[in-house]
DNA-binding transcriptional regulator, LysR family
Amino acid sequence: MLDRVELESFLVLAEELHFGRTAQRLHVTTGRVSQAIKQLERRVGVPLFERTSRFVRLTAVGSRLYDDLRPACDQIEAGLARAIASGRGIRGVLRVGYSSPWCGDLVVRAADVFRVRHPGCEVHIQEVQLRDPLGPLRAGELDLQLTEFPIDEPDITTGPVIYTEPRALMVASGHPLARHESVSLEDLAETTLVSISGQVPAYWLEYHYPRHTPAGRPIPQGPAVGFWQETLSHVSAGKVVSTAAARAAHYFSHPGVTYVPYRDAPPIEYGLLWPAAAENTRVRAFVHIVCDLATASRA
């Protein structure tokens, strides 16, 4: 009979193709993962993974085994989730927010899965505006959301990072930087960076819309905006530049706006968060689904 640790180690390693990340997801040591994989390979009689110092990848047998086992495990997990939901009464309404369209895409997909597993619970989805990223959570209008990190608030619980996106600088197509293959954070000292109005944590603003370059040079601040569409309009008019995830270029194709990748900026992380005092089975179930979908999309 297949050991549970062997099964979990195999499935997660097949998705992550990295022993360290697999161990983190399973909350065990890398040695325990390696041991479980070796035990399973002895049981099967052939290697399931190719391993070198540079990569880990499935063998042909390993790939077929994953294709056979994953649907069965998903069915078991879904059945267990439905039983737990029935026992715990996952019902009512779950309100989920998102701050960017790619986060919204994932939230919608997760909501579809959630509704199948928990038909007694409705899911309402809404966009969270730039000018008040935490307001709806604190006002009780949302139960959780998927948004840009960093978030470090005593009344809010932060969950796992779901997306890690490289940054780009949004500039007017006629701006001198639009002709560059890449830009540096130091280039911001020669621009006017959009500023954000509203109830936004100061540390969040400094991370995404800094007032000084890494070398300490001041960054001129432009008009304050509270909505993303305002930012696009100001950038296309040549009034300001703005930092964005590079992926935004695929969602916000705006006349007169060019996205230039950074070569030295840290990435933008997007993660889940919810009020610390309002965590419940609905929130935990939705978080689990989002994490599973995000992991599957990276496989």
